[in-house]
Predict the 3D structure of the following.
Amino acid sequence: MAPTKNHALKKKAPPSEYAKALASGNILQCLPLELRQEVFAFAALHYIRFATKDGRIQASDISERVHEWLPPMCHVNDDFFLESLPMFLRHIDIVVGETYTAYGLFFFLQATGMFSYIYSLRYTDAGTLAPSFAGPQLLKECNNLRHVALSFRTDDFPSINRHKKCMQPFYFDKKAFLEAHSFRQLLTLKHIEKVSQIVFRKFPCGLSCRRVH
């Protein structure tokens, strides 16, 4: 008689680990860590594709007390949470809005030790990147960032918006903007692949945008 799947797993895993996994109902724990990570990565990508909008998660939803933003695999037990959360974080685009959301995200990543698994950040409020705020600290601690996107409106920094009339040419003073905000951390990121910046200007008929390279 051919061995059952449980018997096959028992031969590969130490008896104590197998007994623990069988008692908890998680035979997946018997697999080597590398295989479990492959499973968690596949599950994370599936969740991101069908349960998020364009793979983006709002930083305001990320909290130690709020768990609705987490995929189901993070809710199984503490071991699954610690092993699957990195697979999830490295595949999402985290949108950082108001300043308080940057602080919330920073404290969550600090408490879980997950800074190095953040690959993409998207800032939508220029004030978040002011010196001594949490925005620059995120850029500093998330040292494996691949993509940073900056999407701002000229209303966020009126002193930099040189043209007040709607019909005048759009002008964005990059030097003044860089002087008013902390971007030095971007220069220390060794794995960065892309930094994009979009500036929106509000018109009576709607929004106009300009990509700044």
